[in-house]
Amino acid sequence: MTEAPSGLDESLGSGRVDICELIAEPGRFGDLAGAAESTTLERLVSLEPRMGDRGVDAGMWRRVGLDPNLTLGALDATDRKWLADVLRFWRVSPHNVIETISPADWIHELGPVNYYKTGRTTIRRVRLAMLQERKAEIRRILDFGSGYGRILRQFKAAFPEARLTACDVISDAVDFCAETFGAEPVYAADDPGTTELEGEFDLIWVGSLFSHLDAPRWKSLLDLLERALERDGLLMFTTQGRFIRDQIAERTWLDAHGEPIWVNWDVSDDQLSQAVSDYDREGFGYVGWGALDRRYGTSIATPAWVLERLQTRPGFRVLTYWEKGWTPQDLVVCVGT
Ligand SMILES: C[S@@+](CC[C@H](N)C(=O)[O-])C[C@H]1O[C@@H](n2cnc3c(N)ncnc32)[C@H](O)[C@@H]1O
Questions:
Q1: Which residue has the CA at smallest separation from atom 19 of ligand 1?
Q2: CATH classification of 6-91 is 1.10.8.50, yes or no?
Q3: d(CA 163, CA 98)
Q4: What's the CATH code, domain 106-336?
Q5: Taking the CB of the first residue and of the last residue of the chain, which one, N or C, has fewer CB atoms within 10 A?
């Protein structure tokens, strides 16, 4: 292994020079360029202070298609940029997640272990989308339908510099997120699409809200989010696709207590069958069950139906449609144009 000269160790270890920038364009860093170019990738990555004790094992190098024993000088410009992007992905590991839970947080009550696991998965999904788009930072985050901050607390830990906005129709949940995570509060309108939002966001997260809306509300919410998404920003939302459709059709969908999920919905068997046949015929089905005394229920949508809603919108470019990307829900990612 090539030894790194101490100037390199000091500049990177102290954080004075960002290693990802040095890897991507060593020529910008004067004397450090030669030292970096004669250092192996493995050693360079070990100099990133934010990696802490986490090593990069052989499997990780294999998955990104780089040989850790090569020197930086042996990589062409495209591979250098790729390594810099991958290292930005590797070096972030959210820690210090706030664990204050509201007594009213029904999602936490249903399963505390999954509560944090789902949050960590969400951060990985965001970081994957950033990697796909070569997006280095996130500055302003909107969690639309934030509830009591299951995901927002992870955003705070993963992107500590970002401004956070919590938006929900439950004002107590919004207040909790403002007090606990320092989020800007937005009290949502009953029709989510008529909610007043200030300015634009470079990350909008909507976890498990479209999956509760009927088709007209899908449209009004997409209209609002199209206006609120910054150019090159990421809109990420989840939907219920064919896996949920099958569980409704076969009546096998169980809640966290192992009970059929519709026991508390007060809907008839015919309504469930109708939602499935609408989905099969038109790509979209909905059962209203009026939780929160609102027009609220459960929707199922095919990828084709969802993409049809997006492809007519000039403000979005579809980056990903990932079936079960947010298990059991599907994950959709759009980039602002
Ligand atoms: C299934 S929960 C998901 C909560 C959170 N996104 C998470 O994944 O932990 C759906 C959330 O959407 C909120 N919601 C329902 N109708 C809404 C509306 N019109 N505007 C904003 N949020 C709404 C609910 O109050 C609830 O907090």
A1: 192
A2: yes
A3: 16
A4: 3.40.50.150
A5: N
